Amino acid sequence: MRKNFVIVLFCLANLSLFAQHYRDTVYQYTFGGIQNDICNQIRATPDGGFIMIGTTNSFGAGATDFYAVKVDSNFNHQWSATYGGGMSDEGFSVTPTLDKGYAFVGFTNSYGAGGYDVLLVKTDSTGKEQWQKTYGSSDWDFGYSVKQTSDSGYVICGLTYSYGKGNGDVYVIRTDKKGDTAWTKAVGDSGYDIGKSVYVEFDSLYFITGSTTSYGCADTNVYLVELNNKGIVLKDTAYGGVKKTTIGNSIEPQDQGGFVISGYSDISTSSMRMSPFFIMMDDNAHIQTWDTNVDFHTGVNICNDGIQCPDYLYVAACTGNEAALGGLDMMTMLMYYAPGNKGNGSYDEGPYEGGTGNDGANSCAVANNANVAFAGFTDSKGAGLSDIFVCRYKTCGNIRQDDSMYHVFKAYTDTLPITVGINEQVQNDIMVKVFPNPLSTDATVLVQADVADKYSFSLYDINGKCVINKKQLSSSGYGQAMLHFAKDGLQAGTYLYKVSDRNNKTVNGKIIIE
Question: In this structure, are 363 and 441 located in the same domain?
């Protein structure tokens, strides 16, 4: 009989559960070069250290490359490496492997069959590449999460436009130990369905979380997909409600059986405020408690990852804009959940960390010495335009909102070979896809960029008249944002569009309306 599973997403509250009256230390680190470097996932390693995977255009062979950084338990740099080709390659997930190496997954348009393809890179314990594989077809295909199975094979989840029914479907890939495909599956319907994180249970069940616009009563809903090891979908369910947006970003096990899913939701149907939250469910996926009502804030707080610490304590890695430090800041959340309490956990808002620029947390991990690390990005500190940013605490219980904490900062400027062709075009690399194009009734605009940002969409007729003015795109995580728009009263013909970020960097293109 398989384990019960619990879905927990973190919500904001102003409780002081872990009050401590002594001064503690937060250790801050940056890693990178003179351009843009970001960590998308951090994971603990068997030797007590951490492995990080992200994206760089400071180093490597092309516009962007996978960027892996290995550190010891005290965050001393051990090695770093880049993987990719002459164009754009972005790394999103890492798993330590049974042979003491690592597997990294992301996407590439340097190799493969289509515009973008899933890229899986296998290395030894020192980061030396052993092999790489691509998956996908003639359209766009992205990889966001990878786990290894006991036979040394891999399970990958992501997003595909090459296969499936709609405007993007959950993409699941099962491989053998050499990365050769055993089977693939596209899951979803006519809307936008994405898989962001996969968890493997007993090598026989694969649980994937993400978001969907195909199912559920809200605009975007948390999506949970359960498959067996043959690729047969056993269950796919959407969880939403009165909110316009509910996003699932990561799924991790908890030691009493079950799962922790981290994500965020809008606070109200009339507001752009975003906040982490949690759901309690039984093993039949019946919601027992969904607590999203505790909120004392006015800004945006997005949870990207969560993991269990000892003593039923959970931590979440968030990005928010409520502190007075700068634009966006790295934020931590804690939740205490005792077995049998039907989801009535208590919450503690941890400190905001960063500077006068934009800083954020994309992932968190707990080492075997109980150190907990939050990793993401910063343009407030470090060597370049943006760097990998890490905050490390001695234990989960030492994380708290306390301005008296000591701060110890160390910057590491990497010595990898500098990338070829650093220029303004690379810095402004924003990729836009409009589908279907030509359109007859409605279309979706999808933006893919290195770092999360706010984007607006404007549409002009052939005479330059603006017919859609700066309509905001909704973030769907991992540097992606999207917008649905309808033809409505627009006449058939050729139109020009402009997608702009908050710094007025733009991408222009053409749309044909039938």
Answer: no
